[in-house]
């Protein structure tokens, strides 16, 4: 028997992505029909993969990343009534039984009572005996492990190849990927600043009409049908903007749903963040509570985000009975049935019992305050402590931040706000009204450089934060941010206070480094720089070598003599000296001198950093590192590899500086300075590895 390859080899050949061990997010997947994602969705997938996998390094096993992009809610106890219901179920002794595919009728009845209490109504009911006065029955409800699975099943049911799911941008990026993996196409409806990042019904209607018209022209019934827009995803509250459309927005919601109803487009109403709306009197309003809209609306509720039970994975679905029948069919065909324990947890949270309000208020009132306080911590970091209007809240934030940041200089810097960063602004500043995400605008950092790397794109921005402080977050591309020229990040503030403050402190630290590096430029020296350079050398020697080099020699150093020497040798060395120039004052604040020749004492060297001096007051803030890096870049351009640096043995700060940059001490010698000799260490750098 001829065996050409093993079973594993065959599997790997057909799925090459399995050959790479991944740290972080798993492979985001591909379309099940083997077609390519459309370009918009591919960009989202690439951005999520970049955040979750590519912006990582081999150190992640031992060095913790600081992930501001996670989707976990705040660490908060699970909703007690849900726990009680699960315990009761376990104690009842019925765990040996297989559950019904559609779920226990008693569970569905309690869920039905909850949604009817919330105002759900079907004004066009079917003619069945069990339909109640609201036009509904338990057959309008089923539950599954998570709203994500539910969404996937729904897309499979309502769409055929080529059909379009219209998704707002910004939105939860994985929904766009999952819709296309199921075989549908995804188009983005931009939520624009002029509409205050809310859905504009006129633009929604125009977009649906344009897509349908385009599909009619392109397809011309080649599939036996003409693909069309089949659903609009209405996340309310929106992830990630946190915008809420509540009772006060009934007119807007009615217009949105009417646009979809008139065009035969389902509304998928995602209510998973509803109960973490900050204003308890303006919870997100389900579209299925609007008369005439129930049969055209598919509503999703879940426990994970609001009820502190993300690890359970529990969601339920309310829809027209025809849709529910097919969802149940798919559950049976693909997973037999949903776990009964999921239904028990759901009914603990979503019921119409008399005692629910007391338990609900006891849980959510402090939870909402916690989320709002954490957002205000974020706001204080981004916009400065004075952006907090309420004095009591401001004092609480100061107290909490001071608890974890003891250094007064760091605290002062932080309380001024974060450089190059702000909240986006529509008609109003985009601050969340629900949930635990905020969108940050880093566009002011665009065009800045760090260690020779230009920040031009959101990926550049994320690499900058990861390189400086191992920070990660979701970028605008991954959430369909509609303004592609902006640099956007979606961050969570659902972390523990200490972790959140630490993460934001590091973010501020990264941006302060960017400010510093971009407050000066490095270039070749010019003739007019020589006097300032001479002053720097004399001052630097007197400051650095006091008590190390003979006082008589230091006293002999003269500004004018040194200036004359530099001017005299300028033509010979003008392309071997770099200067750091403070942009605001045009002041020389440091310089480096290098040689492209081997050092006469060390044959293995092929170039040398002859000197590196900083003006007093400019040490310890990165200028020396910048001069060092730029020198390395030039020497690399000459194809040099082994750079030598000499350092007086007693100059402990310089030795520490060069060792930290990767220098290896390879030799020693004596240097004559004035009438005395001093021991020196020789440090070697493999400059080909410096960036690493």
Could you explain the architecture of this structure?
The protein contains 21 helices and 21 strands. It has 692 residues and is α/β, with parallel strands linked by helices. The strands form five sheets. The chain has a seven-stranded mixed β-sheet with strand order 2-8-7-6-5-3-4, sandwiched between helices. The protein has a seven-stranded mixed β-sheet with strand order 15-16-17-18-19-21-20. The chain is elongated.
Give a brief description.
This protein is α/β, with parallel strands linked by helices and about 700 residues long.
Number of helices: 21
Could you say which structural class the secondary elements and strand pairing correspond to? alpha/beta
Mean pLDDT: 92
Distance between the termini: 51 Å
The biggest beta sheet is recorded as:
7 strands, mixed
| Multimeric organization | single chain
- Uncertain runs with pLDDT below 50, 5 residues or more? none
Return Rg in Å: 32 Å
Strand arrangement within the widest β-sheet reads 2-8-7-6-5-3-4
Q: Which strand-content bin applies to the residues?
A: 15-25%
Helix content: 25-40%
Shape: elongated
How many β strands by DSSP? 21
Could you list some keywords that capture this structure?
single chain; 692 residues; alpha/beta; 7-stranded mixed β-sheet
């Amino acid at each position: 028997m001829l065996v050409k390859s093993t079973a594993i080899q065959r599997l790997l050949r057909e799925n090459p992505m399995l050959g790479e061990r991944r740290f972080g997010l798993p492979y985001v997947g591909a379309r099940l029909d083997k077609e390519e994602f459309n370009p918009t969705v591919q960009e989202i997938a690439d951005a999520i993969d970049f955040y979750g996998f590519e912006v990582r390094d081999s150190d992640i096993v031992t060095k913790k990343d600081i992930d501001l992009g996670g989707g976990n809610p705040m660490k908060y106890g699970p909703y007690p009534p849900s726990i009680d219901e699960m315990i009761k179920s376990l104690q009842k002794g019925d765990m040996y039984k297989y559950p019904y595919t559609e779920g226990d009728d008693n569970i569905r009845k309690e869920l039905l009572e909850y949604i009817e209490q919330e105002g759900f109504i079907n004004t066009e009911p079917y003619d069945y005996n069990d339909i109640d006065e609201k036009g509904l029955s338990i057959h309008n409800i089923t539950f599954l492990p998570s709203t994500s699975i539910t969404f996937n099943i729904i897309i499979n049911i309502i769409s055929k190849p080529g059909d379009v799911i219209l998704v707002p941008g910004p939105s939860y990026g994985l929904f766009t990927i999952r819709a296309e993996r199921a075989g549908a196409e995804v188009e983005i409806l931009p939520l624009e600043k002029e509409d205050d990042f809310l859905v504009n019904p006129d633009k929604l209607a125009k977009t649906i009409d344009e897509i349908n018209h385009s599909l009619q022209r392109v397809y011309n019934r080649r599939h036996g049908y003409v693909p069309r827009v089949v659903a609009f995803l209405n996340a309310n509250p929106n992830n990630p903007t946190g915008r809420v459309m509540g009772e006060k927005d009934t007119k807007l919601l009615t217009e949105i749903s009417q646009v979809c109803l008139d065009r035969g487009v389902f509304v998928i109403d995602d209510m998973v963040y509803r109960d973490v709306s900050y204003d308890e009197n303006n919870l997100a309003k389900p579209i299925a509570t609007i008369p005439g809209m129930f049969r055209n609306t598919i509503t999703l509720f879940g426990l994970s985000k609001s009820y502190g039970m993300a690890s359970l994975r529990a969601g339920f679905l309310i829809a027209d009975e025809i849709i529910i029948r097919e969802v149940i069919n798919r559950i049976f065909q693909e997973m037999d049935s949903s776990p009964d324990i999921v239904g028990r947890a759901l009914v603990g949270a979503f019921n119409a019992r008399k005692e629910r309000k007391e338990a609900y208020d006891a849980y959510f009132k402090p939870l909402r305050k916690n989320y709002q306080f954490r957002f205000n911590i974020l706001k204080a970091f981004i916009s400065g402590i004075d952006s907090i209007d309420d004095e009591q809240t401001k004092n609480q934030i100061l107290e909490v931040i001071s608890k974890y940041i003891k250094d007064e200089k760091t605290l002062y810097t932080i309380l001024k706000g974060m450089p190059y960063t702000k909240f986006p602004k529509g008609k109003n500043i985009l601050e969340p009204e629900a949930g635990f995400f905020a969108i940050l605008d880093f566009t002011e950092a665009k065009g800045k450089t760090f260690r020779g790397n230009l920040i031009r794109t959101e990926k550049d921005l994320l690499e900058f934060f990861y390189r400086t402080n191992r920070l990660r977050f979701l970028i605008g591309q991954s959430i369909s941010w509609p303004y592609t020229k902006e640099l956007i990040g979606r961050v969570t503030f659902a972390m523990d206070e200490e972790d959140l403050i630490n993460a934001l402190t590091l973010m501020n630290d990264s941006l302060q480094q960017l400010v510093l590096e971009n407050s000066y430029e490095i270039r070749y020296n010019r003739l007019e720089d020589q006097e300032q350079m001479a002053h720097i050398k004399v001052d630097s020697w007197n400051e650095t070598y006091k008590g190390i080099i003979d006082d008589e020699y230091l006293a002999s150093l003269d500004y004018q003599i040194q200036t004359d020497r530099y001017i005299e040798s300028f033509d010979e060395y003008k392309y071997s000296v770099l200067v750091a120039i403070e942009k605001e004052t045009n002041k020389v604040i440091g310089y480096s001198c290098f040689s492209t020749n081997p050092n006469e004492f060390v044959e293995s060297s092929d170039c040398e950093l002859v000197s590196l001096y900083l003006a007093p007051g400019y040490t310890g803030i990165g200028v020396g590192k910048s001069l060092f890096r730029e020198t390395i870049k030039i020497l690399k351009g000459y194809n040099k590899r082994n750079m030598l640096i000499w350092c007086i043995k007693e100059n402990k700060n310089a030795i520490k500086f060069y060792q930290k940059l990767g220098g290896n001490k390879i030799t020693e010698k004596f240097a004559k300075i004035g009438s005395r000799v001093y021991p020196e260490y020789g440090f070697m750098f493999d400059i080909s590895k410096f960036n690493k």
